[in-house]
């Protein structure tokens, strides 16, 4: 099966099946959701096997006329970048379902609705990375907000409504700017050979540099909110603190990647000149995000907010790698997107289990878990090691590639960013010490260790974190040609060794 | 280069051990320590086999390599998972696996009452695997994996009893300070790639001549930062004393014999960089000289036997760093001292563990005394280590340390005199504080706690001590006989600038050193043997002693300069993020809400007023864009 459209249909079919189950049979709806996501993951893996990795053209291309009046097509296709992100999304989905088996209970709506939302969201996650029609991308980009809004507002904890609204307003604001840019592109395409929303065609448009700068900003601000880049980040900690762990995984692991994906796919492709104009500013914002996110993470008292801030730091690395415009930086950034999906998933999932058991997300309420719940504690520790990019684990490869790739062109930025690795040691080891080490804190004595279902859910994540640390080639082989293609199209070549100007 | 397919087993065996022991959990409690000991022992056997093969080849043919797979390849950044075993790395392989196996055996008994003994062996195996990767990796990036791997193992082992908050803090401190050093390694690798275009040892060595001194100096200084972090050298030394929170076999293996010497390995391995970067080399020497005195001074004031030994380790590694900074004439002596130190310091740490074992884990030497009669084997093995570290002929330290002192004097000019004097002074202070340890622990009167019943340790513990004691006696002689080690390592280093000053003849150096040692011993003897030792440390001591007891204010400095300002910055930023950045966002949102309400002249629900805002905003934006596009 080599059809992206069919792949997108699978979760929809699953959601219809879930919708058809009786409201009382909650377990059945969970099982159906799990089965669907597993099938989708296998189908994606099978497709990935058929991907020709040295071919830089879009593959698995499909195109159906959608709204002919406006020249809008339902067209999809993937390159290495999109494939890797779709793969990440569809592998994460069953892990989210299985690890958060009970997190829909106590929500505003039924358990079955929760899984319908998750499955609909999965379809959109595939679509948003696969779309090659700008209008189709925009529609999915905005439509994705609805299930996430409902998942946070309906099933979250604490101030979930406020957090959900904040998330929605921030995102819609960015989406609005992007919409304006898209309409402008559409209008211009009409003047230059026919109205279209086709990404390839739009990238050939002639436009003045002022126009390009404005339109670039429309897209970039939308993506910088999503990614999120400092100072547009304040929605994320609130959203992550209120969402269920599973929702947080999808939000930070997948949806936020649409931001960094969009920077590559839309900002660089459509507005290469404007991208270069704004690169100095973006590089500074990226470095600020890295350091700022890390320091803020150190200062958090709430576990979920802490993880959210670490992600702001990590997205800074990804953005920096993208705009450094070297093959190492670019490939590193793409690999970073994939690896971050799993290391953050591990932190949120295991952190979520800890919080659910303890009934509190305040770090100070934990203590001594290593001796009460060793498997859970070890899982959290390993996830933390991955977050601080310990060599031998997957995130090291991507983080180091970003740093070395940035250094060859922007040494000062890379040097400042490298200080982030010391800060990372602090933001991981401080919660590790408080929650896992020390004497048993009151209220922790009776906590249960992971059960079989939870172990099965987390094991593949851990296995992937370790395996890809030692053997990242399968992914890099897919990513490298796509990255090289973007760099070449932007007119960049890697800086040659300087020999220290000798 | 010749290929050997068996190098990977050196690392794979202990790694397999660690994996099995960690995954099997409690099920492996019964046999975990056996498996855990067999793994490094098997690696040791592989190492001996490799050595025998090496001996059968000519000097140029000795290095062997093994490419495992392509690890990272992006553009011109290509790094293979490759191993390199040459004359230098084989020294480390045998030290790590040999001393490592002995310490595993010791731990079987030492940790037998700990219900987590299996986990302890898992960590030890993990450490052995990472340390072997560190010394076998054929590029700086491969080395980096081992480098942080040993840091992780060290963190886990320092915090093995992390249910005690102070121990958990000590482990975190070690990891964070090591990461500061690791940052230096990151920078070195980045600079190397940006300037030379490769990160492999062979690749950089080949291109040294085409690379500017500035670039090489930058790489060298960053490597020195890395070495300072891992080897507890000034100014990144403050973690080592706290690292004594780990079980004593850990202190012997990781924080004396092997991991903390990784910095010396790094500098020696990077000889082709330092030889071409005199400024970086000078900094190495300065760091070494400062640290050897710094550690020795701290050692004079410590009552905790492990912390006294830790200060001594810091100081002895200072000697090695200094020697490594002296270039081709010094590398072999740095490694020789590293090997002899591996024997005598590991032996003394195991001895300290044996004493603690018999004294209810008491570490305060003021509560010891007269243990000679109750722990004769411990006394003798520790005593041989003591003679070795002092540099009394013919014990091991005599050969290795005197060589360093001599080479320091012969560095020439003022530099030579300063360095030589520092090493001589260090030798005197070493004699003082080590004699103090000996006297307080083994001689004099009993100052024990009521419930202490000292007894000799079981054979599983004293046997490794005895074997290490044999090393303390003979290793110096064996390694320097016929310049064995110097000739063995000779092909690796570039000797074209070698020149011997011979400011002082070897016999003069030995005489001076022994005089200093005698003075140090004498002072200790009169101060601690002739007078009654207080069981509680006296408070009416000189300011200098007070400062030395506080580790020369190293923690106070770090806390005042880095920690507290950092904590304040964090607090300020957390508040600013909520009040200023998010506050601005909220204010803009509210302004928009109220203006959209005004526009419509109606008060309505939150979401509806937002929808209106979207509509109006979109219309305005599209109009604006339209104008721009036209």
Span of the ends, CA to CA of chain A: 56 Å
N-end to C-end Cα span of chain B: 68 Å
Q: Which secondary-structure class do the elements of chain A indicate?
A: mainly alpha
Helix content percent band of chain A: over 70%
Q: Which outline of chain A best applies?
A: globular
Major pleated sheet of chain B: 3 strands, mixed
Structural class of chain B: mainly alpha
**Low-pLDDT segments, ≥5 res of chain A:** none
Helical content of chain B stands at: over 70%
Question: Overall mean pLDDT score of chain A?
Answer: 93
Count of extended strands of chain B: 3
What value does the average pLDDT of chain B take?
90
Morphology of chain B: globular
Estimated share of beta-strand residues of chain B? under 5%
- Oligomer status: heterodimer
- Which two protein chains have the largest interface (Cβ within 8 Å of the partner's Cβ), and how many residues from each? A-B, 83 and 75 residues
Walk across the major sheet of chain A and give the strand order: 1-2
Brief overview:
In chain A, 73% of the residues lie in helices and 3% in strands. With 502 residues, chain A is mainly alpha-helical.
């Amino acid at each position: 099966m080599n059809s992206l459209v069919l792949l997108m249909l699978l979760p929809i079919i699953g959601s219809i099946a879930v919708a058809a189950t009786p409201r009382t049979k909650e377990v059945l709806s969970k099982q159906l959701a799990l089965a669907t996501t597993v099938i989708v993951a296998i189908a994606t893996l099978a497709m990935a096997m058929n991907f020709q990795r040295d071919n830089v053209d879009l593959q698995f291309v499909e195109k159906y006329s959608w709204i002919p009046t406006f020249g809008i097509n339902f067209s999809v296709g993937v390159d290495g970048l999109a494939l890797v992100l779709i793969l990440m999304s569809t592998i994460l989905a069953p892990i989210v379902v299985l690890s958060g088996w009970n997190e829909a209970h106590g929500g505003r709506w039924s358990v079955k609705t929760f899984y319908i939302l998750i499955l609909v969201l999965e379809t959109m996650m595939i679509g948003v990375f696969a779309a090659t029609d700008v209008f189709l991308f925009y529609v999915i980009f905005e439509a994705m907000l609805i299930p996430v809004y409902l998942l946070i507002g309906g099933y979250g904890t604490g101030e979930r409504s406020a957090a959900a609204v904040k998330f929605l307003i921030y995102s819609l604001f960015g989406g609005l700017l992007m919409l304006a840019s898209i309409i402008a592109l559409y209008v211009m395409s009409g003047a230059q050979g026919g109205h279209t929303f086709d990404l390839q065609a739009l990238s050939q448009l002639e436009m003045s540099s002022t126009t390009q700068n404005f339109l670039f900003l429309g897209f970039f601000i939308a993506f910088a909110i999503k990614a999120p880049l400092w100072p547009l980040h304040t929605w994320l900690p609130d959203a992550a603190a209120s969402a269920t762990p599973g929702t947080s995984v999808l939000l930070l692991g997948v949806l936020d990647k649409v931001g960094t994906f969009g920077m590559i796919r839309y900002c660089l492709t459509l507005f290469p000149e404007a991208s270069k104009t704004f690169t100095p500013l973006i590089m500074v914002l990226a470095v600020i995000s890295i350091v700022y996110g890390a320091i803020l993470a150190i200062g958090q008292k709430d576990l979920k907010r802490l993880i959210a801030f670490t992600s702001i730091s990590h997205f800074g690395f990804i953005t920096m790698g993208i705009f450094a415009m070297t093959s190492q930086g670019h490939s590193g950034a793409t690999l970073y997107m994939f690896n971050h999906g799993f290391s953050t998933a591990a932190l949120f999932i295991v952190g979520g289990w800890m919080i659910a058991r303890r009934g509190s997300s305040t770090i100070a309420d934990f203590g001594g878990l290593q001796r009460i719940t060793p498997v859970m504690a070890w899982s959290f520790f390993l996830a933390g090691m991955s977050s601080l990019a310990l060599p031998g684990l997957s995130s090291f490869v991507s983080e180091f590639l970003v740093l070395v790739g940035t250094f060859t062109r922007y040494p000062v930025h890379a040097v400042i960013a490298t200080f982030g690795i010391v800060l990372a040691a602090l933001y991981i080891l401080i919660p590790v010490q408080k929650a896992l080490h020390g004497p048993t804190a009151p209220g922790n004595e009776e906590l249960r260790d992971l059960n079989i279902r939870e172990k099965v859910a987390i094991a593949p994540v851990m296995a992937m974190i370790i395996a890809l640390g030692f053997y990242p080639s399968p992914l890099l082989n897919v990513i490298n040609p796509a990255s090289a293609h973007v760099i070449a199209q932007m007119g960049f070549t890697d800086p040659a060794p300087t020999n220290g100007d000798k | 280069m010749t290929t050997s397919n068996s190098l990977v087993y050196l690392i794979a065996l202990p790694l397999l051990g660690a994996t099995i022991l960690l995954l099997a959990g409690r099920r492996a409690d019964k046999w975990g320590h056996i498996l855990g000991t067999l793994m490094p022992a098997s690696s040791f056997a592989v190492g001996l086999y490799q050595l025998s093969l090496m001996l059968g080849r000519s000097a140029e043919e000795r290095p062997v390599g093994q490419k495992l797979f392509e690890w990272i390849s992006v553009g011109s950044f290509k790094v293979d998972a490759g191993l390199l075993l040459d004359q230098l790395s084989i020294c480390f392989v045998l030290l790590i696996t040999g001393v490592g196996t002995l310490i595993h055996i010791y731990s079987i008994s030492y940790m037998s009452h700990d219900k987590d003994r299996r986990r302890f062996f898992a960590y030890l195996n993990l450490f052995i695997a990472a340390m072997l990767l560190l010394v076998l990796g054929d590029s700086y990036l491969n080395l980096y994996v081992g480098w942080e791997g040993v840091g992780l193992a060290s963190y886990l082992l320092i915090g093995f009893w992390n249910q005690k908050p102070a121990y958990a803090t000590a482990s975190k401190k070690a990891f964070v300070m090591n990461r500061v050093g690791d940052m230096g390694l990151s920078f070195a690798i980045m600079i190397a790639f940006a300037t030379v275009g490769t990160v492999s040892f062979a690749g950089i060595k080949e291109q040294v001549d085409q690379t500017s001194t500035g670039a090489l100096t930058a790489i060298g200084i960053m490597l020195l930062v890395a070495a300072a972090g891992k080897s507890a050298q000034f100014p990144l030394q403050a973690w080592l004393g706290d690292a004594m929170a780990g079980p004593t076999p850990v202190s012997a293996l990781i924080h004396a014999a092997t991991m903390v010497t990784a910095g010396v390995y790094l500098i020696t391995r990077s000889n082709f960089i330092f030889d071409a970067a005199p400024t970086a080399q000078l900094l190495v020497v300065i760091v070494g000289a400062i640290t050897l005195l710094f550690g020795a001074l701290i050692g004079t004031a410590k009552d905790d036997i492990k912390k006294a030994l830790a200060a001594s380790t810091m100081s002895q590694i200072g000697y090695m760093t200094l020697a490594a900074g002296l270039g081709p004439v010094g590398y072999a002596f740095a490694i020789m001292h590293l090997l002899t130190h591996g024997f005598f310091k590991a032996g003394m740490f195991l001895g300290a563990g044996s004493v603690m074992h018999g004294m209810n884990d008491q570490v305060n030497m003021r509560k010891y005394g007269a243990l000679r009669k109750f722990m004769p084997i411990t006394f003798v093995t520790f005593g041989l280590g003591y003679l070795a570290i002092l540099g009394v002929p013919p014990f091991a330290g005599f050969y290795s340390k005197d060589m360093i002192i001599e080479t320091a004097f012969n560095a020439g000019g003022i530099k030579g005199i300063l360095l030589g004097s520092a090493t001589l002074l260090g030798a005197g202070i070493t004699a003082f504080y080590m004699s103090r340890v000996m006297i307080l622990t083994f001689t004099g009167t009993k100052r024990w706690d009521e419930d202490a019943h000292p007894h000799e340790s079981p054979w599983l513990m004293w046997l490794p001590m005895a074997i290490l004691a044999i090393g303390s006696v003979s290793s110096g002689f064996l390694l320097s006989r016929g310049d064995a080690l110097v000739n063995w390592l000779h092909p690796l280093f570039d000797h074209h600038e070698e020149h011997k000053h011979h400011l002082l003849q070897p016999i003069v150096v030995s005489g001076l050193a022994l005089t200093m040692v005698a003075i140090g011993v004498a002072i200790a003897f009169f101060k601690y043997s002739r007078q009654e030792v207080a069981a509680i440390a006296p408070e009416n001591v000189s300011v200098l002693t007070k400062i030395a007891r506080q580790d020369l204010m190293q923690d106070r400095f770090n806390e005042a300069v880095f920690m507290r300002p950092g904590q304040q910055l964090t607090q300020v930023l957390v508040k600013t993020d909520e009040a200023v950045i998010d506050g601005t966002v909220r204010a803009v949102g509210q302004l928009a809400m109220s203006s959209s309400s005004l526009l419509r002249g109606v008060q309505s629900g939150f979401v509806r007023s937002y929808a209106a805002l979207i509509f109006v905003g979109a219309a305005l934006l599209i109009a604006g864009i339209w104008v721009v596009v036209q």
